[in-house]
Amino acid sequence: MENFKNSPIVKKIGFNRILLALVLILMYVVFAIISPSFLNYSRILSALNYVYFLGFLSLGVTFVIATGGIDFSIGPVMFCCALIAGFSLNSYGVPMPLSILISILVGFVFGCFNGYMVAYWSVPPFIISMASMYIAKGAASVFTRMQSVSWPQATAEGGWYRSLVKVGNFPVGLVIFLAFAVICAVILNKTKIGRYILSLGSNKEAVRLSGVNVKKWEMIAYVICGTLVGIAAIFFVAAYTTVQPGYGDQYNNEAIAGCVMGGTSMAGGLASISGTVIGVLIIALLQEGILALGIDKNYQLIITGIIVIVAVYFDVMGRRRKN
Question: pTM for this one?
Answer without folding.
Answer: 0.93
